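Is 1,3-dihydroxyacetonephosphate placement plausible here? Inputs below.
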Amino acid sequence: MNLADLNKVALAMVTPGKGILAADESSGTIKKRFDAIKVESTEENRRDYREMLFRSTEAMSKYVSGVILYDETIWQNAKDGTPLVKLIEQSGAIPGIKVDEGTQALPQCPGELVTVGLDKLAERLKKYYERGARFAKWRAVIDIGSGIPTMTAISVNAHALARYAALCQAAQIVPIVEPEVLMDGDHDIDRCYDVTQRVLNKTFQELRVQRVELEGMVLKPNMAISGKKCAKQASVDEVAEKTVRLLKACVPAAVPGIAFLSGGQSDEEATAHLDAMNRIGNLPWKLTFSYGRALQAAPQKAWSGKAENVAAGQRAFTHRARMNALASKGEWETGLEKKVA
Ligand code: 13P
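Reply from A.M.:
I modeled the complex. Tokens:
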């Protein structure tokens, strides 16, 4: 492992003014997104949609530091035969790859999940590196509910995240470590805070045990936020203040950067929260975005599967990317939302 090179890539991924496009929806998830815009989820449509994003020259060259791809996409070519991964490289962004293989029910823990995909991961990482991937992603999912999460679910998921991260670094690939505490329940922000604290502490404990080099990784956490069904929704300032306090308590300063998931927040909420955190300032790590839904909902709607809407889809994507890029520097304002370029 060359740690200096891993650190360079990790720092590039969290460059202020840029963030990560999470375009790594599994076949099941992208089908749900396409269903919502009444587009059939064929291989060609998935390719056309993602090609539209990667050919958004302004967004990709100015506001996107890296793109997380799904296995199908990293091997796909654009309509003109150019590998999609080359389009990303040509824009100046770094290609990345989702390497987990989804979740399975966790034995003895009803309602809880463990992320799988460690088998043969070393061999897969080698092929992805040859294809151009310089970072990877593995997502663990922790749900909040009555009696959950159990410490069992937190431990096995943290263990798998650290196993994955160590294998990535051995393959000269920067691991994005993503322990996602879901915001689907009716819990309040303080319960989210407590659970996320346990999850992050366990995750960093495992990363240390398995000798993962913190300078060569990026953390992708959820924010401390109210559950979607909670009657009392925390304000933007409360989310920002509590998330920063939580991260300061749990994330060593050796980690170069933190790139948040959006997790079901509205587009503008995800931007406002990131912006408010960066306005607090004086942070030991860079804070940016690694959004899936909060970057893609608008372009998906504008595109709706029609070739004549590609320019509109690209405009919508560029706008969201620019808003989040400003938020990564604490320079976003709600008034800018109206001024679509
Ligand atoms: P969302 O921003 O839609 O939560 O997706 C980010 C991601 O990569 C989840 O694994």
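Short version: The first strand starts at residue 19 and ends at 23.
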